[in-house]
Amino acid sequence: MTIMKTLNKQRIHLAALSTGPAIRMLDEAIAFTRKREQFGQPVANFQLVQSMIADCRTEIFAARSMILDTARRRDQGEDIALEASMCKYYATEMCGRVADRCVQMFGGYEYVADYASIERWYRDVRLFRLYEGTSQIHQLNIAKLTLKEAEAKGQ
Q1: What is the separation, in whole angstroms, between the first and last Cα of the chain?
Q2: Distance CA 130, CA 147 (A)
Q3: What is the rounded CA–CA span in Å between residue 103 and residue 120?
Q4: What is the pLDDT of residues 127-153, one digit of tens each?
Q5: Which stretch of 51-65, 94-108, 116-130 has the lowest confidence by average pLDDT?
């Protein structure tokens, strides 16, 4: 039981660690797309760029909300094995999607030395999906715990 509580805490922690870089990458992408111009206007004015910004912002908000809710439940002494696994899975996958969209928003400029931070983040955040159990392990854990919960309810 003590080992599981430690794992749950680490999973919440890794989820939070995945959310920080996502926020940073989005901030950098927004600043870049507001400055970079194409066809006489900032790239941020283009609807498809705005769509990527909206998707990133929404997913970051969802991850943060999950993390805060799960951390509160843990602090109250609840069993959060399922929630911790969902947080870790969602937040680390979200971070990868945000990184991918941000690289897309930078386009070819991302590979120029002056703008290489997003490209580096893109490589670095990939590891988040491997630490504390791969995403696939968490999918199995989430399904197993959900089915166990349903059985306990008589479903």
Answers
A1: 26
A2: 24
A3: 10
A4: 888 888 889 999 999 999 999 999 998
A5: 116-130
Round to whole Å and give the CA distance between 68 and 7.
17
Q: Is 58 exposed, middle or buried (0-12, 13-18, 19+ CB in 10 A)?
A: exposed
CA distance 141 to 155: 19
Active-site amino acid positions: 132
Task: Identify whether the C-beta of residue 90 lies closer than 8 Å to the C-beta of residue 66.
Answer: yes
Residue 36 one-letter amino acid: R
State which amino acid sits at residue 14.
L
Spatial CB neighbours of 53, under 8 Å, sequence gap ≥ 6: 26, 29, 30, 33, 44, 105
Q: Which residue pairs from 75-81 have beta carbons closer than 8 angstroms and sit at least 24 positions apart in sequence?
A: 80/8, 80/12, 81/4, 81/8, 81/141, 81/145
Helices assigned H by DSSP within the chain: 2-35, 47-75, 81-106, 117-124, 135-152
